[in-house]
Design a protein that fits this description.
Rossmann fold, alpha+beta
């Protein structure tokens, strides 16, 4: 099996439309219709997240979309792995785990409109779905 066959794009038949790109997101991001950021934004503070999200907004197509896949902190009464991982994030860098409301605010400040949140059956991560605002 080749590396290409191991990637999700190949498994779901969209490898002719997808690229996996490694680069510094702070100066700019490449143009795209959809951005998927898994376990990226939790590494950065709010202002750094706004810079990354704003760069994606600027580079995205008119119908651009973004999926943010992270450990999402639930309400205070709910026990969840994200709360433990938030402590881990505080120990090594400027990032942290966030609530859906906090991610929604970051998206809004960077030109995106929050749509919805999906929770896969494993319950560990949530997927925040947003679209490019038409302003």
């Amino acid at each position: 099996m080749t590396n290409r066959e191991l990637l999700w794009a190949g498994k779901i038949g969209v490898d002719n439309r997808c690229q996996y790109i490694s680069r510094d997101m702070f100066p700019s991001v490449p143009p795209a219709d959809l951005y998927m950021m898994k376990m990226i934004l939790h590494d950065w503070n709010d202002e750094e997240c706004i810079k990354i999200l704003s760069n994606a907004h600027r580079a995205s197509s008119n119908d651009g979309r973004i999926f943010i896949i992270e450990h999402l902190i639930p309400d205070p009464q709910t026990s969840h792995f994200s709360k433990l991982f938030d402590i881990h994030m505080m120990c090594w860098g400027s990032g942290r785990e966030r609530t859906v409301k906090e991610y929604s605010a970051l998206l809004e400040r960077s030109g995106w409109n929050y749509l919805q949140t999906f929770y896969p059956s494993n319950g560990i991560n949530g997927i925040i779905d947003a679209v490019k605002s038409k302003s």
